[in-house]
Amino acid sequence: MNLTATEIAHHVRGEVIGNGNVLLTGFAAANQAVVGDLTFADQAKYFAVAEQSPASAILVSGAFSSIEKVLIRVANTRLAVARLLPLFFPGETYPAGIDPSAKVSPTATVHPSAHIGPNCVVGDGVSVGADSALLGGNQIGRGTRIGPNSRLHPNVVLYPGTEIGSRVTIHAGTVIGSDGYGYVFAEGQHHKVLQVGNVVIHDDVEIGANSAIDRAALGSTVIGAGTKIDNLVHVAHNVVMGRHCLVMGQVGFAGSTTLGDYTVIASQSGIAGHLKLGRQSTVGAKSGVMRDIPDGGTVLGIPAQPDQQTKRQWIAVQQLPEMKRRLRELEERVEQLTRASLPPT
């Protein structure tokens, strides 16, 4: 990709400080940049490194200036990076058509522009939308619908009845629509409760590798539009996530919990069932959530409590050794005073 600084500035709604005709042929971090590269910096310490690098231009926000380098000033550096990376590193394209090794039901509907890769199995009544791609080894259950421009990486499995929106990306090894964990204990044993619902994934969702989203017992497990789920996440039956949530790696959700829009769940947290996590709520890493969280609330710890309360408790725990030492000294002093006050025997 060859673009001038002016062309790049136009793409990210920025302004050029310096020679707008300088040609930029790559994008790299400052410590890896070569002549012709665009790099970026959003803090003074990073800008100093970028200015000393061979890069031909620096993407910045704020009042940076340079005699040596062309600058492209934008309102938000990280957002500009996100918009520029696809220009310099365009995604793979996949040829339309069905690989000879794939098995596609005669009752399935595959758009002519879609790509069905090697060893895929596409079941009865499945619908695959325009420009979507199944990249290999995918199992698509009966009645599943996949919207346009979606990507299923190798070995993704969609159980029957799953609904996938547009521009959805599901990474390798993830299973969508597996059986919800439902049992009734009676007569000395666990009796299976059939899980007859499905999973609905709305537009612009991305799901990481080796995650599992269970189908609902009745109704739907729902992942809202724009939500991003990391690797190794488990979502139990009947969970409903709102729009634009962020779920980091190794998080587990018990059944029937609801997440409001823009909820953030940090890594290795566990969320109990039948809870309501409010809009724009945040769960800190390694937390165990056992109660509802109000809109805008932030919780930490096990069990998770409001963040300021938890931080005070952590500080208090760190002070325990010193408090224990002082208590021992006070006990010894009290004992000395007590002995001194006793009449002689």
How many angstroms does the end-to-end distance come to? Answer: 99 Å
Based on CA atoms alone, the radius of gyration comes out at 28 Å
Structural class: alpha/beta
Morphology call: flat
| Count of strand segments | 40
CATH hierarchy class name of the largest domain: Mainly Beta
Query: Residue-averaged pLDDT, rounded?
Result: 95
User: Count of helical segments?
Assistant: 5
**Strand line-up across the major sheet:** 8-11-14-17-20-25-28-31-34-37-39-40
CATH superfamily of the largest domain: Hexapeptide repeat proteins
Query: How much helix, percentage-wise, in residues?
Result: 10-25%
Strand content: 25-35%
The third-level CATH topology of the largest domain is UDP N-Acetylglucosamine Acyltransferase, domain 1
The number of distinct structural domains comes to 2
Major sheet description: 12 strands, mixed
CATH architecture of the largest domain: 3 Solenoid
Low-confidence stretches: none
